Amino acid sequence: MAAEKMSLSKAINASLRTALETDPKVLIMGEDVGKLGGVFRVTDGLQKDFGEDRVIDTPLAESGIVGTAIGLALRGYRPVVEIQFDGFVFPAYDQIVTQLAKMHARSLGKVKMPVVVRIPYGGGIGAVEHHSESPEALFAHVAGLKVVSPANASDAYWMLQQAIDSDDPVIYFEPKRRYHDKSEVDTAAIPGPLHAARVVRPGTDLTLAAYGPMVKVALDAAAAAAEEGKSIEVLDLRSMSPIDFDSIQRSVERTGRLVVVHEAPVFLGTGSEIAARITERCFYHLQAPVLRVGGFHSPYPPSRLEDEYLPGLDRVLDAVDRALAY
Which residues fall within 8 angstroms of residue 173, CB to CB, at 6 or more apart? Predict the structure, then answer.
């Protein structure tokens, strides 16, 4: 099949459709995922085509959704559950971190947990409270969970395929403000490793590392910096657990500088671990401290203020200028 241009949300839908067609043990569960097709219409048409036994509308009970998925996984199914919005995941947090993440180790490797938890996350859509959070660091901190986030339609399709194929639980964060961004998707391609970072724009002066919704901002910043003669390498991290530190190290050894960008608050965010590890690994290559750009250490604000809260082009370019000034 030739590559097709599609939106990130359509790519996820296509990936779920492929999984349902390929493996009868794949199930989709969540609030309004069936008849409505999800609040973002990501699962549109799937219940109609595969039936209510494969695409299941659940009660409004996140803990029950994840707990049921764990039971189904124990019986050989491969559940893909949707948490309707990022801020709704916390009633299920106990199930995820004390059960889902621990079963493999608790059983000395005998029990597999092929569960994918899909979470639309991040801001930029003008939503109300509890609808724009970026809680990825909370899950990346928990051993036993894989945590990933696609930044484009191709990765959205293939990373979800790989997550569903995984025998370990995967938290799959979907950047909701990128749902309508389009790019080429080759559904017949051979994908790269799920947790490998990828250079999406080469450069020589500084590495700009981001994932999910901030990759586009990083690319825009690199393009703006190029107009001033600065060569910025953009690295799409793609995975928050595990993190591909080897790829980051190789990039920093080329450029000598690193700025990490994410929507989540800077305080104890993913960028903190990256900054610490790269400082250890690349101490003699770094020409400037590793800088971090992210949200503020405060509750997510009302929608009128989210443009001030979210790291945008100006804040990223300011960090780039500060790093290059050393």
Answer: 86, 119, 121, 122, 136, 147, 148, 149, 212, 240
Q: Specify the pTM.
A: 0.96
Contacts of 271 (CB under 8 A, 6+ apart): 260, 261, 262, 292, 293, 294
**Which residue among 131, 141, 195, 285 is the active-site one?**
131
Q: Domain 198-325 maps to which CATH number in 3.40.190.10, 3.40.50.300, 3.40.50.920, 3.30.70.20?
A: 3.40.50.920
Domain 4-185 sits in which CATH superfamily? Answer: Thiamin diphosphate (ThDP)-binding fold, Pyr/PP domains (3.40.50.970)
User: In angstroms, rounded to a whole number, what is the distance separating the alpha carbons of residues 192 and 39?
Assistant: 30
Q: At 8, which helix (H) or strand (E)?
A: helix 8-22
Distance of alpha carbon 287 from alpha carbon 293, whole angstroms: 18
Annotation says 141 is catalytic:
no
Each residue of 62-95: pLDDT tens digit?
Answer: 999 999 999 999 999 999 999 999 999 999 999 9
Q: If DSSP codes are grouped into helix, strand and coil, which group holds residue 323?
A: helix
Give dist(CA 198, CA 313) in Å, integer: 21
